Amino acid sequence: MGESPSLAQMIWPRSAAASRVHRFVSEFLGLEKSIMREGQGETIKYRVFAGTWNVGGEAPPDDLDLEGWLDTKADSYDIYVLGFQEIVQLNARNVLGPKQRSAAMKWQLLIEDALNNRRSAQDGGEEAMDQERDVFRCVMSKQMVGIFVSVWTKSGLRRHVRHASASTVGAGVLGRLGNKGAVSVRFLLHDTSFCFVCCHLASGGEVGDALRRNADAADILSRTSFLNSSGGVPAPVDLPKKILDHDRVVLLGDLNYRIAMDDGEARQLVRARKWSMLQENDELLLELSEGRQFYGWREGVVTFAPTYKYHRNSDKLYWCADTGHRRQRQHRAPAWCDRILWRGKGIRQIRYERCGGYRLSDHRPVRAVFHAVCEVVESKHG
What we know:
By secondary structure, this protein is α+β, with helices and mostly antiparallel strands. Helix content is 27%, strand content 26%. It has helices at residues 17-38, 67-70, 92-96, 101-116, 125-132, 155-158, 209-223, 263-271, 275-279, 283-289, 325-328, 378-381; strands at 42-54, 79-85, 136-144, 147-154, 161-170, 181-189, 192-200, 229-230, 233-234, 248-254, 338-343, 347-354, 366-376. It is globular and about 60 Å long.
């Protein structure tokens, strides 16, 4: 691993994480200062919340409170980007039939309730509430079968968000259907382009399945393209059309990478909470170390428990004690399937954690918080 010249630009190896954290923070602070010196105008730093959750095809109860996951009591985030997978069951009817909008609408209402903390609005109405405080407004939401992305900003920031658009890429059955793939949303914030990519990659823990996930990721990055106009408004000619051309990019979702080791040994390490030893065999990190995919991406240090696979409504991991061959195939070794990566200058991750209090699904939601620097060019907005 030490011989790979590109490894330092990818996800941090866990053995070197501590030394790289200090250096990366220093580089970011230096970068922010250099941007302010070299730019034509000023820079503004925003706090971006990114979250991902595979909800396992389960409809959320009406009283599901998302405030814990979204950390709304902190009241310190400017942008929320929430990505879901499997908001509907991935059966033939949902994959091949008309879009099932009811699940997305329900999640959207729960998000709004949590962000604005008003399940019952006051009599003054929305305009009065806007004057009262800076509420959150949805910039864009987009669904492809079970993948759903919802982007929100504070209402005072909404006028600085321009050219928002979405793109979907199916990578499932026949390499095109939407049971797997990605929904991507991009926009300009002031004069900086952002792109958020919500993925659900190929599943499976057999030999060769990691390569299928790599192929899905490569397909998403190559095929995703944004239109030249959104809502009838032509976009600037130089606005990026491909994911990797944007200034700040965050990729999140159920990436489905597993632990490449004997199941029995993995179980022992989980019981002992030896996360770092498990991560030495994490497929995603192994792929990165060999330079096959995700070149140039970063991930924060994973210090939390595996995000998959749990019994629903329980904190018990889903591995079956019965060793009979009929039950053996139902076995699921624990893994960090749910991840958040980023790339680009002027963006720094400050939090990365699992939210264990949500037991609706066999996955646990994950969240990350970023500081993102935006450029404001005086000649355009003076």
